[in-house]
Each structure stands twice: as C-alpha cells, then as structure tokens.
Amino acid sequence: MKYRIAPSLLSADFARLGEEVREVIAAGADFIHFDVMDNHYVPNLTVGPLVCQAIKPYATVPMDVHLMVQPVDALVSGFAQAGATIISFHPEASQHVDRTIALIRDCGCKPGLALNPATPIDCLDWVLDQLDLVLLMSVNPGFGGQAFIPHTLDKLRQVRTRIDAAQQRTGREILLEVDGGVKADNIAAIAKAGADTFVAGSAVFSGSDYAKTIGALRHALASAS
Ligand code: DX5
Ligand code: ZN
To answer: Which ligand is nearest to the CA of 133?
Structure first.
C-alpha cells in the first residue's frame, strides 16, 4: 500500500504561503491540500483560484483542491486553470453530481467526492467508477484543529470494500482520503481501516520542524502495513 500525506494549507502561515508550500514539500509532502471555503456551504471563508495560481510555481507535487463551496460548477474551470490536479466537492453542494464530475474531468482534472460525517456512502452508487478519489471527512468541514470523529473508521472500512470492488472491475486506481483530526497517534488506525491518503493540517503546521512531523506520521504508518 502506497500512503500519501497531504498537508492542509489551512493551518499554514498565509503571509508566506509560497515558502510554506516549498518547505512542506521538501519535508516530504506527497500532495498539497488546498481548502476552499465560501461562508455559505461552510461557515468560514478562505481562498480562491488566484491564490491557488500564486502558489502553483512552488507546488512541485499534485495540488489537491477541496471545494467546500456551493454552487460548485462555476469555480471548476478557474481552479483547473490555476493548476489544480485533483478537485473534490461535496454532493450536497451540487445540483447534478454526475455533471460536476464530468465537468472536472473535461477541465483536465481528477474528480473527487467529499462525504461529510453524516453523509451516507450510498451517494457513491452510480458515480464511484467515474471518480479518482473519495474524500471522507472525519470532522465537520469548515475549520482546522477539530477532533477526529471515531465512526469514520467504520465508514472507511465500508468505502474501502466498495473501492476495492470498483478497482477490480475497472482496473483504475481510486484514492481513499481522510480529512480532519489526523495525527501521529491515530494515523495507523485510520490506515488499517482503509485510508491511503491523509490530510493533516494542524498536525503538520503547528510544529516548526515539518520533516520531523511528517516523519512521525510515516513512522506510525509503517506500523500499519
Ligand atoms: C476542514 C478542512 C481540513 C482541515 C484539516 O474543513 O477540510 O482539510 O484543514 O485540519 P486538521 O488536520 O487540523 O483537522
Ligand atoms: Zn480539506
């Protein structure tokens, strides 16, 4: 199992975002997780395509854009042009989930579907084969630094089973990403439940030595496999 660590810029120093991106990649980040909040779908406001474009020259790893916005479609091409690799959105925020997935792919990006803690996994029915990533929220979206919701482990196991079946059927890789409250002391259990991609915001950026923190996450992951 290849594990990927995706530091969330939400907890980075926004006054020196480019440097933060460069440093966290040098420290071993596999993806840069870019949280977009609109003060409508979620009660917080962050950044848009302009900032994504500004940090793109620093991002030598895939840019993992997590849209917590409603409506979704109008922003997809902007983020694609700004350099997004993956674009994930929440099904509740799109009138036509299948259409939004197709739009993301047509723009040259990889589509991901993000499921809130209370969102049933049935929403993956009929669309899983079109996705490159499933993002399970292990906190309610909107803020960094919240505690991991334990029932996410059961949900991960159920989604892992579905993804394995889809991969068998289609031969395509679908990543299973978990977002919220991931730390060195729970990442092994999260991996054992089936996640392969781990967003970590406060866990990475609250310390000053990013290589040490990412190293600790990887060390804990090694015990899971
Ligand atoms: C929350 C965001 C997360 C957040 C995670 O809505 O989607 O990506 O930054 O932060 P931590 O790792 O601190 O829970
Ligand atoms: Zn996120």
So the answer is: 2
Q: Is 196 a residue of the active site?
A: no
Nearest ligand to residue 8 Cα: 1
- Half-sphere CA count of 4, side-chain side, radius 13 A: 20
pLDDT (tens digit, 9 = 90+) per residue, 60-80? 999 999 999 999 999 999 999
For residue 171, report the distance from its CA to the centre of ligand 1, in Å: 31
- Taking residue 112's Cβ as centre, other Cβ atoms within 10 Å add up to 24
35 labelled catalytic: yes
The burial class, CB within 10 Å (0-12 / 13-18 / 19+), for 4 is middle
Residues of 19-57 as b/e, b for ≥16 C-beta within 10 angstroms?
A: ebbbbbbebbbbbbbbbbbbeebbeeebbebebbeebbe
The answer to whether the CB of 90 is under 6 A from ligand 1 is no
Sign for the CA dihedral angle at 217, 10, 23, 208 comes to negative
pTM: 0.98
Which candidate in 38, 64, 132, 179 is catalytic? 179
* The pLDDT of residue 225: 76
Q: 8 CB less than 6 Å from ligand 1?
A: yes
Is the CB of 33 inside a 6 Å radius of any atom of ligand 1?
A: yes
Q: For residue 1, name the pLDDT band (cuts at 50, 70, 90).
A: confident
Q: How confident is the model at residue 99 (pLDDT cuts 50, 70, 90)?
A: very high
